[in-house]
Amino acid sequence: MPELPEVETIRMGLAQALAGHIVENVDLRLKKIVLEGNLEDLVGSEVTGVRRFGKVLVIDFSNNLSILVHVKLTGQFVYLGPNRPSGVNFSSKLVGGNLPGKHTHVIFRLDKNGRLYYNDIRQFGWLRVILTEKVEEFKFISELGPEPLALEGAKSADFLTLEKFKNIVSKSKTKIKVLLMNQTKIGGVGNIYANDALFLAGVDPRRPANSISQSEQSRLYDAVLEVLSRGLKHGGATELNFVNAFGEPGGYQKYFLVYSQEGESCPGKCGGKIEKIWLGGRGTYFCSVCQR
DNA sequence: CGAGGTACCTGACAGC
DNA sequence: TGCTGTCAGGTACCTC
What is the pLDDT along chain A (292 residues), one digit of tens a residue? Predict the structure, then answer.
């Protein structure tokens, strides 16, 4: 379920894959996933860059149009063509067999015999075609909170400093885990990394944010950066069907601390077991011994 | 402002 | 085997 590390992994791959390609033809097979604009308007244009704002991808084109994409839970971009690196660990299973597949909703035919497939099993994701100059005015992006990692391709001038984090946390009565996942407060953190960050910091996910002490705030800030960095280092987490732009799965799922580990022994040395509760409408995993 | 519920959608899996 | 029910979650939208 793509969060910041997964979407950034897709972005890096797409930037490499699409560099210099020109769109020759677009085959839109599921019209409802394009919420705004017309993919046909991209025909004849060259990709000039790929950006990311939180969990939203932006593909820029030479005709001053951009595609905004939110892959939500199961959206995938898979590229085939001359810019594909050698030695790719392509997962046919995760992309749904041969391409195009049952869940391929858009096929971008590129010059030099390139192909970019957009797949989405659950059809929750969306694409929008808008003017490049309007990208940062798009509601989700303009309201996005600062991102924890200062990365190329994000609005790094506005990244989440410890000062900003403390300010956000101390001003909110919301349960800390729900706050971490609020995209208008902090950009890019979803369920996996919120669970793991709270474990790493030793903070109970149910606590009101403003009950967290100064030292806990610092620990939690460091933990958020740490788990996101780990996720990125391992090319994201493949929990459902996540793959990068070349069809390769991520590796962070092997290093989950508590996420999806219900009933397992706590990775700390407390001897406790990971519990699962329902919080903010989502499965929440934690150790009630280590997280106070 | 916060909390909680639902909708969107399909596949995986448990239980009978 | 095959049915039914439940769960998974990012975000928008709704009500209280």
Answer: 699 999 999 999 999 999 999 999 999 999 999 999 999 999 999 999 999 999 999 999 999 999 999 999 999 999 999 999 999 999 999 999 899 999 999 999 999 999 999 999 999 999 999 999 999 999 999 999 999 998 875 555 679 999 999 999 999 999 999 999 999 999 999 999 999 999 999 999 999 999 999 999 999 999 999 999 999 999 999 988 999 999 999 999 999 999 999 888 999 889 899 998 888 888 899 999 999 9
- Residue in A11, A51, A55, A155 annotated catalytic: A55
> At which residue do the structure tokens 């085939």 appear?
A80
- Residue A3 designated active-site: yes
Burial of A192 (0-12, 13-18, 19+ CB in 10 A): buried
pTM over 0.90: yes
Residues 63-82 of A with CB under 7 A from strand C: 70, 72-74
> Residue A150 is which amino acid?
A
Tokens 């000039």, residue located: A48
- Across all strands, nucleotide nearest A96 (CA–C1'): B11
